[in-house]
Amino acid sequence: MRIAVAGGTGLVGRYVVEELAAAGHEPVVLARSRGVDLVSGAGLDAPMTGVEAVVDVCNLETTSAKKAIRFFESTGRNLLGAGARAGVQHHVLLSIVGLERVGLGYYRGKLRQEEVVTKNGSTPWTIMRATQFHEFPQQVLDRMPGPLAMMPRMRTQPVAAREVAQHLVRLVLGPPQGMAPELAGPRVEELVDMVRRLLRAEGRRRLLVPVTLPGAVGRAMKGGGNLPTGPGSRGTQTFDEWLTQNVRHIAHDGHDGRPGEGG
Question: Which whole-number Å values give the CA distances from 94 to 80, 91, 141, 253, in the listed order?
């Protein structure tokens, strides 16, 4: 099967491409580095020729609601439009657990992306929400240069990016499900504790100052708004197991710990 992967050069996208190829399918990478601009739609129709299904893991790194909404609405509409013209029969989107409960600007963009998919009216779809990846603590640290890091209090249930990709591949090869069960990791973690363990494993020292973000967003993050609320799939690799395998590569990777990237 010929399957397009939007954001196929990013963290999860690369794993999706690998898993599809290993299963004998033909992944088609849709990304700027491959001459496709998902925001404008330029260069999108040609590679979509013969594509039967799409996995959308494209991403934008921003905290601005305005930028996130503009990006995800544009990319979603362009992908669905190109998919309809190509005769795509299944559109799979990776999203984030807790979008409605945690009102971050980025999350508002992801909500708009979900709305575009669910209301497109033509292509059958599946949306899978996942929790933060094991790379998330490094991402937060990277945004706070210097010896002092103000670390938000946040409960999360981190999951391995490769396991997310494996679930997405299983979904895209099956029938459309609508809203699929949420995917999370095996354990609930505190972000500050994860960062401490990351720094210890890397032999680095940073002064961490735990803070509760103001307003409803901070209360939701601290109170478990990012955690799944019902039964669903659970990954098997813990953060500590992942840390043991990957810590030497983290500082040089620079990948986003949120679901999906690239595009």
Answer: 14, 10, 24, 21
Q: What residues are paired with 152 via a beta bridge?
A: 211
Measured between alpha carbons, how far is 54 from 51 in angstroms, rounded to an integer? Answer: 8
Return the DSSP state at 13: H
Element (H, E) at 129: strand 125-130
Q: Which residue has the higher pLDDT, 194 or 253?
A: 194
pLDDT reported for residue 146: 80
Residue 97's nearest CA partner among 157, 187, 42 is 157
Whether the CB-CB separation of 77 and 38 falls below 8 Å is answered with no
* Burial group, residue 121, by CB count within 10 angstroms (0-12, 13-18, 19+): exposed
CATH architecture classification, 2-250: 3-Layer(aba) Sandwich (3.40)
What is the pLDDT, as a whole number, of residue 231? 85
58 and 33 Cβ atoms separated by less than 8 Å: no
Residues written for the chain: 263
Q: What is the pLDDT of residues 194-205, one digit of tens each?
A: 999 999 998 888
Q: With the C-alpha atoms ordered 27, 30, 35, 36, is the resulting torsion angle positive or negative? A: positive
The predicted-structure confidence for 213-240, as pLDDT tens digits, reads as follows: 899 999 999 999 999 998 888 999 999 9
Q: Where are the domains of the chain?
A: 2-250
pLDDT score for 259: 52
